[in-house]
Amino acid sequence: MMKTITCTACPLGCEISVAMEDGKITDISGYTCHRGEAYARAEATDPRRTLTTTVRVQGGGSPLVPVKSQKPLPRGMLFDGMKEIKRAAVKAPVGIGDVIIKNILGTGIDIVATGRAESV
User: Fold this and answer.
1) Percentage with pLDDT > 70 across the chain
2) DSSP H helical ranges for 4-93
């Protein structure tokens, strides 16, 4: 099976071809830098994305605070992660870097605040 991946590791946006057999990479071509090869390997075998969204704030001057995953999560877990975050609410004050949800979905990855929410 052949996958074509557009690399986002640098501004060139190379079209990288990844040949796979039985879930293993057999050939990679089309990259122009080592970052492209590494990106294509990861994207073909274990795609991950940083999850960014907002969490409700109780007792704050703003109803929401922006959050993100500290590290990229497996792409297949994003919707479940969003469901867990939707159920969450934090009490103001909230500072940048505060852990909002520890170890989301048992991944060892925390959801942290990327903005502030002051108390009213």
Assistant:
1) 100
2) 34-45, 78-87
pTM above 0.90, yes or no: no
Residues with Cβ within 8 Å of residue 74, at least 6 apart in sequence: 46, 47, 48, 107
Cis ω before 47 (30° cut-off from 0): no
Angle at 115 between CA 112 and CA 120, to 5 degrees: 115
Amino acid at 37: E
Q: How far is residue 73's CA from residue 107's CA, in Å, rounded to a whole number?
A: 8
Query: What is the residue-wise DSSP string for 71-84?
Result: SPEEGGGHHHHHHH
- pLDDT band for 8, please (50, 70, 90 cuts): very high
Its sign, for the CA torsion 65, 70, 72, 73, is negative
Assigned token pair, 41: 């390997």
